[in-house]
Amino acid sequence: MKGFPEKVVTSNFCLKAPTKSSTTAVTPDCSEQSPSERKLSRVSLWSSFFSSAFSVFESHRESSTCEKKGVHHRGNGWTSAVKKVVAGGSMRRLHERVLGSTKSDIWLLGTCYKISADCPAEAEATSNILAEFTHDFSSRILVTYRKGFDAIGDSKLTSDVGWGCMVRSSQMLIAQALLCHQFGRSWRRSSVKPQDQDYITILHLFGDSEASPFSIHNLLLAGKAYGLAAGSWVGPYAMCRSWETLVRSKREETVHELHPFPMALYVVSGDENGERGGAPVVCIEDVHRSCLEFSKGQVDWTPIILLVPLVLGLDKVNPRYIPSLQATFTFPQSLGILGGKPGASTYIVGVQDDNAFYLDPHEVQQVSDN
């Protein structure tokens, strides 16, 4: 995959019974500017991505059967991974980028981190704020390319390297929704204490096998009608519709059980139900209907995810959209953005001026049998 650094950021998450919450997601498909234009336009929001390296699907040394569902384990654990990152200078470089010449505030999924370093006292306060930002950023869940899983359908493919980045990005966004629903936006992942079992339960929802409800296997199966196929890259519209189909099918399978997805999901579409483009329009009646369907008519409103598939340009993002995209990260309900350029998707979780913070799925992880 060209155009993005081949680095990774990783995390995990969890789930429980529905609580009163509302979540939204914006999922545009967009392109990067050419190098000669990057300093001339606000489109640099997409051409100035940067990330730091943490670890994904961390090690959990519990003897439960959950360990056997395809979640990747790292022997060094979270603490060792963070130490390695710090020692390697990634965090130092991240801080240098954040503290550039503008000293602008950071918005990370609806949370603001105020940056100021004009005097020694403010510099110390900024250092603490950056530590809080780093903890928040590293608590997000990263899902990456995998190799060594069971073949997907009849494709004989046992890896999604080179084509599965949009699927992996979408798994990260849904994982973030479940994380917020279960623990709230203020939750941060512990690097010392044993992780909450609910957190681990959510991780296992995204294992790489048909037994995991939201695996790449099941997503591709649900998305056949929208052109999803192993080995082929997919756009945001098809990805959103595939999640809608998958969530609905899992709900039908678990009529008498606790559903693994504790909220309604609604795709905001345009003309012809989004099949032929058009500006997306939120129809309150349709959203209300989705909530009623989810609750089986028991309540009028339930927790809900709004997915908004958009194409914001062909060769590059139209600069007129940048302010609106930036503004979405100030929403308390923000789940971020899936996108990048055609053929290379990332999960964008924050902005600082014209720079974007993202989690990059373009690292290959070996599936563990443990």
Automatic annotation (TrEMBL):
Peptidase C54 catalytic domain residues: 131-368
One cellular-component annotation, GO: cytoplasm
Any one Gene Ontology molecular-function term assigned to this protein's record: cysteine-type endopeptidase activity
InterPro entries per UniProt: Papain-like_cys_pep_sf (IPR038765), Peptidase_C54 (IPR005078), Peptidase_C54_cat (IPR046792)
Superkingdom classification of source: Eukaryota
Reaction catalysed by this enzyme: [protein]-C-terminal L-amino acid-glycyl-phosphatidylethanolamide + H2O = [protein]-C-terminal L-amino acid-glycine + a 1,2-diacyl-sn-glycero-3-phosphoethanolamine
Location in the cell: Cytoplasm
Broad EC category: hydrolase
Purpose: Cysteine protease that plays a key role in autophagy by mediating both proteolytic activation and delipidation of ATG8 family proteins. The protease activity is required for proteolytic activation of ATG8 family proteins: cleaves the C-terminal amino acid of ATG8 proteins to reveal a C-terminal glycine. Exposure of the glycine at the C-terminus is essential for ATG8 proteins conjugation to phosphatidylethanolamine (PE) and insertion to membranes, which is necessary for autophagy. In addition to the protease activity, also mediates delipidation of PE-conjugated ATG8 proteins.
Sequence similarity: Belongs to the peptidase C54 family.
Assembly description: Interacts with ATG8.
The name this protein goes by in its record: Cysteine protease
Source species of the chain: Linum tenue
